[in-house]
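Progress narrative, work stream C.
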Amino acid sequence: MENPLADFPSWPGNAEAAVALTFDVDGEAPWLSEGPEYASRLTMLSQGRFGPTRGLSRILGLLAGLDIKATFYVPGHTADQHPGAVEAILADGHEVSHHGYLHRGTDGLDVAAQRAELEQGLTALGKLGVRPAGYRSPGWELTPQTLDLLGELGFSYDASLMADDRPYWITSRNKPLLELPGHWSLCDWPYFGWTSYHGGLLADPAAVERIWLAEFESACQDRRAVTYTMHPEAIGRGYLARMLDSVITAMAERGRPWFATHAQIADLASPRIH
């Protein structure tokens, strides 16, 4: 059975598309979750640390200059280790959402471990005054048990699935959750993520800019929402922040975007059957 699509009124300001710029502030968590041996791999950890300690400030400055609000998905471990990073995000009026605790993929965890990741993440964010409305699974992988836990713990939206390029409703413990889908092609990591252990592509930013703008133009034609997923440790590099600036500028020139947080988009949603 198909999930019902979400219905929206006209976007604010008669915009042609709702554009969500989202950032996963992973820090060191993904590497530490790989195993205890990563605790001594200082270069790997320092690459992750670049996100909250350097890349994030560059992104926040860019967004402030353009008067755009974004959604930042923060693992609880990042909140515990870099509370000033979360405080800076909040001070600029952005949304903070849930991204696990130690960035463990839910598909490799039993229900008890999934619950612990969610609850520990909520506790870490709660110390900084955040009660997130939304969740993005580390590695963009969900299980049915994850959805049930999200419903039980009071989340209102998820941003991990890819069954459509339009927002749609999913069921969690008989509670509807809005799905705000993304896609690997609209994420910076497949293009610019690199490690000596996992490899990477190191793509030409101009090629990625063309892809992202083509998707924006498609979203304008469809009058739909579109999500871009980025990581301060990647997009926060100087030359890639310049690419993002160029993408945003071109969007404003080619169409009428409403740059919105995921929570703002979710607040407008109502169900309809497709």
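Work stream C, second folded protein:
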Amino acid sequence: MEFNIKDILTIFMVLFAVIDIIGNIPIIIDLRQKVGQIQSEKASLIAGIILIVFLFIGEQLLSIIGIDVHSFAIAGSLIIFFIALEMILGIKIYKDEKNPLNATVFPLAFPLIAGPGSLTTLLSLKAAYSNTNIIIAIFINMLFIYIVLKGSSKIEKIIGENGIGIIRKIFGVVLLAISIKLFTSNIKFLL
């Protein structure tokens, strides 16, 4: 059980960039308009549980279905790559649900917050950092996500449409770099 503030900060920033809750504010606002109220506490809690459970049983779950961690990481890196392209170029690759039945759980908690990119990132982080530091970073991320979900309409008014666009592009470039690093560090194990 290594408690390391530098590691926690690094893990937090990586997960924060992959989850991109700030860049997803326009999606969150759109979901609120479609379904009314989103339960911020429930979405944060469910996403946190998914991430922590996957941290501990993700590799075993993958091995049961015959997928190695490196293949999953490469698949995740491609998903992160396309998400980054969406953010940078302003194009739509991912098809949104027209009428989500329960926006709190799907698509908000999964796959928007705890999606393939963040799950793949967790497996990669697990190889380099202790579970204790990863769990603490997940909790900090979920707390921040809860605050953003609760105040998304206020954040939109403060930052404005242009501010959200700038933040989205910045995090898009960070995600693009993460996806390339994730791809290159795992492809060598498959070749």
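Residues 152-190 form the longest helix (39 residues). No further action is required on this item.
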